[in-house]
């Protein structure tokens, strides 16, 4: 389970709604079920087994083989989730393939997300985030779930290992990774993103000026979004260092820098900065001006650094 989720449970700072995104449906389900089990059960193995068997009164997973998830399915789920927890503190519901929810269903759940019942948590899963209403995006905390073990093997030898690790953590397919590396100047974008972020983590507002040179490398919306994703990955590596994880999973060639930075900030500061990247991603998905999104992120990171 991703460390920001572990920390959210530990610090009792759970959001009322999460949107899990990724390109592998099973990986999304596994991560969501693990998260739900940790919220409801803690270390109680019997309780976790009941979650896996879908036999817990405070847990519901909605999944269908139909082409769409209809309004009636959503309203039935919401009726059940408006009831108070029976066995514990929280109720958790998961909706698989949330991009299949009809517009009417999305509008129903939007009202629920605007005024969520106390101690009720929604986990929405999607492999097609662009098909979900922006207003849903804006009311959820975004979690990128990566399925990374395939291309690290298939492209070994074709792409330098550190860059391949980053491409893998960005949930790219083999063809996507080849295109980004060979045709989209990914290595240079990656270098400039790290340079920009390190400037900000040093509390230097020159990072605002560096945005112009960074954007000169970006030729489409996908590139602009990947910048935010890489910032998040770098900060996650920093967090792993802080909680004594030995492996740097996304930027192994910056391990020494990450180790130094991890000693400079508290876990809370790092988690806060990761949250900032998630909010920036929401804004990009809502087509807020990219320069404005980058500038606001830079100012907020520097503000956190100077606390």
TrEMBL record:
Domain of life: Bacteria
Domain DNA polymerase III delta subunit C-terminal intervals: 199-301
Keyword Cytoplasm: no
EC nos: 2.7.7.7
A Pfam family hit: DNApol3-delta_C
Reactions catalysed according to its record: DNA(n) + a 2'-deoxyribonucleoside 5'-triphosphate = DNA(n+1) + diphosphate
Gene3D superfamilies the record matches: 1.20.272.10, P-loop containing nucleotide triphosphate hydrolases (3.40.50.300)
Sorted UniProt keywords: DNA replication, DNA-directed DNA polymerase, Nucleotidyltransferase, Transferase
Name listed for the protein in its UniProt record: DNA polymerase III subunit delta'
Organism: Macrococcus armenti
């Amino acid at each position: 389970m991703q460390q920001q989720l572990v920390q959210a449970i530990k610090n009792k700072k759970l959001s009322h709604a999460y949107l899990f995104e990724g390109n592998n449906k099973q990986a999304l389900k596994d991560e969501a079920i693990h998260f739900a089990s940790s919220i409801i059960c803690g270390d109680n193995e019997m309780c976790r087994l009941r979650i896996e068997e879908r036999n817990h009164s405070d847990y519901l997973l909605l999944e269908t083989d139909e082409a769409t998830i209809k309004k009636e399915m959503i309203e039935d789920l919401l009726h059940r989730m408006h009831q108070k927890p029976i066995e514990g503190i929280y109720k958790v519901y998961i909706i698989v393939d949330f991009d299949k929810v009809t517009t009417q269903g999305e509008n129903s759940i939007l009202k629920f997300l605007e005024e969520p019942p106390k101690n009720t948590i929604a986990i929405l899963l999607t492999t097609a985030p662009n098909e979900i209403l922006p207003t849903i995006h804006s009311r959820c905390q975004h979690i990128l779930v990566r399925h990374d073990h395939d291309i690290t093997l298939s492209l070994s030898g074709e792409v330098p290992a550190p860059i391949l690790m980053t491409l893998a953590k960005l949930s790219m397919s083999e063809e996507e990774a080849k295109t980004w590396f060979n045709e989209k100047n990914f290595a240079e974008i990656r270098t400039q993103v790290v340079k920009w972020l390190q400037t900000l983590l040093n509390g230097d507002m020159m990072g605002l000026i560096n945005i112009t040179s960074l954007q000169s490398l970006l030729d489409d919306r996908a590139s602009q979004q990947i910048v935010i994703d890489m910032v998040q990955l770098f900060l996650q590596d920093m967090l792993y260092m802080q909680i004594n994880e030995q492996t740097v999973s996304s930027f192994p060639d910056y391990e020494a820098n990450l180790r130094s930075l991890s000693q400079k900030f508290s876990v809370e500061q790092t988690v806060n900065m990761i949250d900032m990247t998630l909010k920036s991603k929401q804004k990009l998905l809502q087509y807020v001006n990219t320069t404005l999104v980058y500038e606001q992120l830079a100012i907020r990171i520097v503000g956190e650094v100077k606390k």
